[in-house]
């Protein structure tokens, strides 16, 4: 398959890694196992299976891989490598990609030349990739601007006449509706195949909340039913993609509702403050897969001058809840999410200096360490970058140098380390990195250097 076509399906970094995997010979085989259905084997941390289904009639392509990255519903480098290899299968008509000769000896790092020597322009090349990606103040990590674009649709019928047609459900009605559908699903004993039916009641409550003018009651009902949904996840069971889609659907409606309330000048400060406090309570009290979808709703308050203080106080409270044992905090997924949430909060509110301090003060989190290091690299402060990396390395329990904590990042930790070492003239560090890139490329780094 042509590279220019494949590149449209992946982020630039993932696509580049896929190209490198193909060059290295990590694609062990690709075969056409049914009409339009390709199976590939790719050597990564282990041998991964990639399945590509190309439907020429519907002009659709579905991609699956058995690696952990793809399990998070992301397109991975293994899939990119197989898609690039499919062209070889089609061209030679054999139905198989032959095992490469000496492919494992090739190196995928873009900071190394073909003879495994270190390129002389590593620092400039890495910076040239980071500058457009980073922008003026850094990337937003969790905020989705689409909620602003979708908000007008929730306001379409929001006239004085229409408001009278939609009475807000009482708290008792909202809670009962959410619980009754969940109970009905559980009592069906598996007779109902659609897990989404369990959350039909909550969905209806949220539709009502979006249609009424009483933002205070609407927000209260919305957060009530999301707590009920969160509490039910333990019993509803693993519905796979269906339940993930349902949680995304419900959470999106809550985020639209908060965006609507935050943007309405008739909303009272007390209503918005109660909503922000409620969002934090839900975030702390429900499973992570739901809490992280809801927490981002706080950022609707962050981006408006009139409600900025509400978001700031709510997130400060969330930060305080993270205080305590440092080791526990570092291993907490919630702590990492809080850092990303606060980072976006500060950028959306225009508090860029404070965002920079926050990143520097939270380098025990990989994402904040990455952003602080990139920021310093772009201001040509290699010693500061090295200091940030050393601090994070000293605290990290696990560190994969062949990746970055932000999927859209155009380079990896390994490339960043190589750029800094070259700028500082640290030839010993460069040689260590070169050796590791060649011989231990797919290990997970912890402690002093690595852990197999």
TrEMBL record:
<protein>
    <recommendedName>
        <fullName>SWIM-type domain-containing protein</fullName>
    </recommendedName>
</protein>
<keyword id="KW-0863">Zinc-finger</keyword>
<keyword id="KW-0862">Zinc</keyword>
<dbReference type="GO" id="GO:0008270">
    <property type="term" value="F:zinc ion binding"/>
</dbReference>
<keyword id="KW-0479">Metal-binding</keyword>
<dbReference type="InterPro" id="IPR007527">
    <property type="entry name" value="Znf_SWIM"/>
</dbReference>
<feature type="domain" description="SWIM-type">
    <location>
        <begin position="48"/>
        <end position="87"/>
    </location>
</feature>
